[in-house]
């Protein structure tokens, strides 16, 4: 993960998952958090909504063959609320999702996404509705989610999307995997720490 | 922009610099880790050949996955065993202090931080768990992070963060009897919405909060995240300092006096500026119960279940009714339950257990109801037993367990089955949260859970003097 990967745009078909306040327990049930690595998370997104207790597939966009291979996920309001589990974006990413466009995202979820190089962009409720209708009617529609220009487009149509400037900058400059950037300033970190009284046990 | 608030002061003193992305590099004073969200972070460190930058500022425990009854190793659940082993190996390899299963300090990470005095005012604190906001009760700037951020904290003791706005929430007047901190926070979430705190840190104040003890303040701050706020805090005061004095990781003697001086200095100034201010009246708050599938879908015990149209997302409310299997307009009072759970980082501390025991004393859990009490830490368990609370619970028909997260997220054997309905003192009523995809959760205060257990249905705790 040390080479720089700049993420400026994501292209591909899309899959809509409708509903507000979709929490990370729904995106990935807690029992899958028992795995020591993220390696198999791609098998589990929305597991309990996609399969019944006997393992039989249920109707769900992620099971629907017409959305197979989608790389853009369309969602509504406050997506990813609840638990901080990075397993949730990991599951979506490893399933094949490379960008999420929605009305709004929960804070920890969006932060987790950016650190994995998975852009989350917001658009107006009416634009999201229009995008969802478009893919539901024509799942083969190809989208371009341009992080750099903050535009999502398909065919002749364009809508404006948004994401925090710091996220946009991190993704497009390839510094979303922040460890290297943070570690470069360890001296500075030590200096800041030395000025905090609790770091020395409030020694006089 | 907010100014001269606790948030602003701590943010400023912990800022290392501005990163090329425009984010702030923020120093993390205390890092708490547990078995669930850390294994991949340590793997990433190993892959990249990095060490832990400040190993003495990270503390570890096991809570999420541990059984709360049979604790012999290896655990019956092979995955739980493997994950626990991974943490044990990682803390050893990287030199991190660990409160393992056999430690008297083991417990839910958000219970043991304050209990040990690790959590202190004027600090930044991070943990790979969204309820890290709990520690804000001490005037600590505390936030939940993901696994990649855990890796960053391990490798650098810093995070790349964006500054939040600050919303002051004043709870005025006083609470009525039978109304607890849990009811207050459920009402705040109900009023401001589960996404209402997006982009904000919540500062809780006003007479009701100022009169709360530390455990009540922790309950409030704990559920900030359920309101969409990444962090919540209460300004440190005499109550805070009295709680901290004498705890294992708190300095003593003159150093304690210096600590108090620092802690006082970080509180929001009287003329601090906030981005938003919200006022609530304590007397308006009733014992509160969630009826739906997110913590904002709550009603006072005497209210009728709301119509979907009363919500900004009527479709979401309709789906919630579908899952829960009840109708708008009906009462929440009298809703039957199958399981009663007293525990979780929201409400598993000594005062929570006392409040529940007061209701349970000399009474019996209704036949057919599965009821369990899971103390938040080994220390809480010990103190509760010294007071005889375990006997009260056991005599009433509650199971008395060892410390852990248990049925809050059901990663251990404590789970709902099928369509069971659980009266729960935890923090999330999400679909599937308590281990059954079809299970149902009613969030309420520990006293309300105890009263529901005795009656086999939701009742008004105020009828139990
Ligand atoms: S008790 Fe529940 S909410 Fe708290 S840390 Fe454990 S799992 Fe998370």
What profile does the largest beta sheet of chain B have? 5 strands, parallel
Instruction: Please give the largest β-sheet of chain A.
Output: 4 strands, antiparallel
Strand content of chain A: 5-15%
The computed structural class of chain B is alpha/beta
Mean pLDDT of chain B: 97
Structure summary, number of beta strands of chain B:
19
Helix content estimate of chain A: 25-40%
Helix and strand content put the structural class of chain A at alpha/beta
Number of helices of chain B: 15
C-alpha termini separation of chain B: 47 Å
Q: What general outline of chain B do the C-alpha atoms trace?
A: globular
Taking all Cα atoms into account, the compactness measure Rg of chain B is 21 Å
**Major sheet strand order of chain B:** 5-4-3-6-7
Uncertain stretches of 5 or more adjacent residues of chain B: none
Count up the helices of chain A: 8
Instruction: Provide the list of bound ligands, each named once.
Output: iron/sulfur cluster
Distance between the termini of chain A: 43 Å
Give the SSE string of chain A: EEHHEHEHEHEEEHHH
Can you tell me about this structure?
The complex is a heterodimer of chains A (204) and B (465). Chain A is an alpha/beta fold. Chain A contains 8 helices and 8 strands, in the order ββααβαβαβαβββααα. Chain A has helices at residues 24-27, 47-50, 87-95, 107-116, 125-137, 165-173, 179-183, 186-194; strands at residues 9-12, 14-16, 72-75, 99-102, 120-122, 143-146, 151-154, 157-160. Chain A has a 4-stranded antiparallel sheet, with no helix packed on it. In chain A, strands 2-3-4-5 form a 4-stranded parallel sheet. In chain A, β6 and β7 form a beta hairpin. The mean pLDDT of chain A is 95. Helix content of chain B is 31%, strand content 17%. In chain B, the strands form 5 sheets. A 5-stranded parallel sheet of chain B has the order 5-4-3-6-7. A 5-stranded parallel sheet of chain B has the order 17-16-15-18-19, covered by helices on one side. The model of chain B has no long low-confidence stretch (mean pLDDT 97). The interface between A and B is large, with 65 and 82 residues. The structure holds iron/sulfur cluster (SF4).
């Amino acid at each position: 993960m040390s080479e720089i990967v700049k993420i400026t745009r994501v292209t591909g078909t899309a899959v809509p998952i409708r509903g507000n306040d979709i929490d990370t327990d729904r995106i990935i049930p807690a029992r899958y958090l028992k795995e020591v690595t993220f390696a198999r998370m791609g098998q589990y997104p929305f597991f309990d909504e996609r399969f019944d207790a006997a393992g039989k597939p249920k109707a769900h966009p992620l099971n629907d063959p017409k959305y197979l291979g989608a790389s853009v996920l369309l969602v509504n309001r406050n997506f990813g609320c609840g638990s901080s589990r990075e397993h949730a974006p990991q599951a979506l990413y490893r399933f094949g999702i490379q960008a999420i466009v929605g009305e709004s995202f929960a804070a920890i979820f969006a932060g987790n996404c950016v650190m994995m190089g998975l852009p989350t962009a917001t658009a107006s409720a009416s634009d999201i509705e229009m995008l969802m209708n478009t893919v539901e009617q024509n799942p083969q529609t190809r989208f371009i989610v341009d992080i750099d220009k903050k535009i999502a487009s398909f065919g002749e149509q364009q809508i404006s999307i948004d994401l925090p400037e710091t996220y946009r900058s991190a993704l497009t400059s390839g510094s979303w995997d922040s460890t290297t950037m943070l570690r470069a300033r360890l001296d500075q970190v030590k200096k800041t720490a030395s000025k905090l009284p609790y770091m020395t046990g409030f020694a006089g | 922009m907010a100014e001269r608030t606790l948030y602003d002061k701590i943010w400023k003193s912990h800022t290392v610099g501005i990163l090329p992305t425009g984010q702030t590099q923020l120093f993390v004073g205390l890092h708490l880790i547990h078995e669930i969200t850390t294994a991949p972070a340590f793997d990433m460190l190993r892959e990249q050949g990095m060490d832990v930058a400040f190993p003495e500022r990270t503390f570890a425990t096991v809570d999420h996955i541990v059984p709360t009854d049979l604790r012999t190793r290896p655990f019956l659940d092979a995955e739980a065993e493997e994950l626990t082993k991974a943490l044990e190996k990682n803390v050893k390899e990287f030199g991190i202090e660990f409160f393992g299963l056999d430690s008297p300090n083991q417990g839910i990470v958000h219970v043991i931080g304050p209990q040990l005095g690790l959590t202190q005012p004027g600090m930044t604190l991070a943990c790979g768990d969204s309820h890290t906001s709990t520690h804000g009760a001490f005037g600590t700037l505390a936030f939940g992070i993901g696994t990649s951020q855990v890796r960053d904290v391990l490798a650098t003791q810093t995070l790349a963060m964006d500054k939040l706005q600050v919303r002051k929430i004043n709870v005025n007047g006083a609470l009525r009897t039978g109304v607890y901190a849990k009811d207050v926070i459920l009402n705040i979430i109900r009023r401001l919405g589960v996404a209402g705190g997006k982009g904000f840190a919540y500062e809780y104040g006003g007479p009701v909060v100022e009169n709360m003890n530390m455990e009540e303040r922790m309950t409030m701050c704990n559920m900030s995240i359920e309101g969409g706020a990444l962090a919540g805090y209460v300004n440190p005061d005499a109550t805070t300092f009295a709680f901290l004095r004498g705890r294992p990781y708190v300095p003593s003697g003159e150093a304690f006096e210096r600590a108090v001086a620092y802690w006082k200095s970080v509180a929001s100034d009287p003329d601090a500026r906030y981005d938003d201010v919200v006022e609530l009246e304590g007397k308006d708050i009733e014992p509160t119960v969630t009826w739906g599938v997110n913590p904002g879908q709550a009603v006072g015990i005497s209210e009728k279940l709301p119509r979907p149209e009363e919500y900004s997302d009527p479709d979401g409310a309709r789906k919630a009714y579908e899952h829960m299997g009840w109708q708008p307009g009906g009462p929440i009072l009298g809703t039957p339950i199958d399981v009663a759970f007293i525990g979780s980082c929201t409400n598993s501390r000594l005062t929570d257990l006392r409040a529940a025991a007061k209701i349970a004393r000399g009474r019996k859990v209704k036949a057919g109801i599965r009821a369990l009490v899971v103390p938040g830490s080994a220390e809480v368990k010990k103190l509760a037993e010294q007071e005889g609370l375990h006997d009260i619970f056991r005599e009433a028909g509650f199971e008395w367990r060892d410390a852990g997260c248990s049925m809050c997220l059901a990663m251990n054997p404590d789970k709902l089955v099928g369509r069971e309905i659980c009266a729960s003192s935890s923090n999330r009523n999400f679909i599937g949260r308590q281990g059954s995809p079809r299970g149902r959760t009613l969030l309420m205060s520990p006293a309300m859970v105890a009263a529901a257990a005795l009656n086999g249905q939701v009742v008004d705790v105020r009828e139990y003097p």
